[in-house]
């Protein structure tokens, strides 16, 4: 199945997928993936921009490079590869030529391959809401360098636990 996916994605996608590959090439995001092919990355970018589209000041998930985040997840968690590749394959085979057609394909995938779709959706949200650009748009400010951990947590609360001593045997 994976070789079929790789073979089917090896050809250029049409319509909205081709437009996405041009946008990715000009967006400044690195174009090399460690698990996904460039074509799969382009399809994923189009899908991500439909799952979390740009709205107001909030950027689209594909526009901030979440495809590369998901590629890293697939590198580090190989058990997630097949479900996400199944979603990408379905999108590629359907060859949507507009956002509306891509939305229809994603709706069908969500219904017919619910578990795979949810894995992609979870990875998308995790990457998106941990992205520095997105966090800055929502107003998150990282703590200042001079703030120490002890200011967030009173380590004296652990004194009683420390006084109990070792409760396990060293091996």
Please identify the structural class as seen in this structure. mainly alpha
Mean pLDDT across all residues, rounded?
81
Count the helices. How many? 10
Q: Element order, helices and strands?
A: HHHHHHHHHH
What gyration radius follows from the Cα positions, in whole Å?
21 Å
User: Roughly how many Å apart are the termini?
Assistant: 47 Å
**Quaternary assembly:** single chain
Explained architecture:
With 171 residues, the chain is an all-alpha fold. The protein has one domain (2-142). It is 60% helix and 0% strand. It contains ten helices and no strands. It has helices at residues 2-9, 16-26, 38-51, 66-76, 81-94, 99-112, 114-128, 132-137, 149-152, 159-164. Helix 1 packs across helix 5, helix 2 (16-26) packs across helix 3 and helix 3 (38-51) crosses helix 5 (81-94). The termini are far apart. Residues 1-29 have low confidence and may be disordered.
Give structural attributes.
10 helices; disordered N terminus; about 170 residues; mainly alpha
List the helices and strands and how they pair.
Blueprint: H1 2-9, H2 16-26, H3 38-51, H4 66-76, H5 81-94, H6 99-112, H7 114-128, H8 132-137, H9 149-152, H10 159-164
């Amino acid at each position: 199945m994976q070789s079929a996916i790789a073979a089917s994605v090896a050809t250029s996608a049409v319509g909205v997928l081709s437009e996405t590959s041009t946008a990715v090439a000009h967006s400044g995001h690195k174009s090399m993936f460690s698990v996904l092919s460039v074509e799969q990355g382009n399809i994923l970018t189009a899908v991500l921009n439909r799952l979390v589209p740009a709205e107001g000041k909030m950027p689209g998930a594909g526009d901030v490079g979440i495809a590369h985040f998901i590629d890293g997840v697939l590198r580090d968690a190989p058990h997630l590869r097949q479900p996400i590749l199944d979603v990408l394959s379905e999108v590629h085979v359907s060859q949507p030529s507009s956002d509306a057609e891509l939305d229809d394909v994603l709706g069908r995938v969500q219904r017919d391959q619910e578990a795979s779709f949810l894995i992609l959706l979870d990875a998308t949200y995790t990457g998106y809401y941990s992205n520095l650009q997105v966090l800055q748009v929502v107003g998150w400010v990282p703590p200042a360098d001079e703030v120490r951990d002890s200011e967030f947590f009173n380590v004296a609360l652990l004194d009683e636990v420390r006084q109990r001593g070792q409760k396990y045997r060293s091996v």
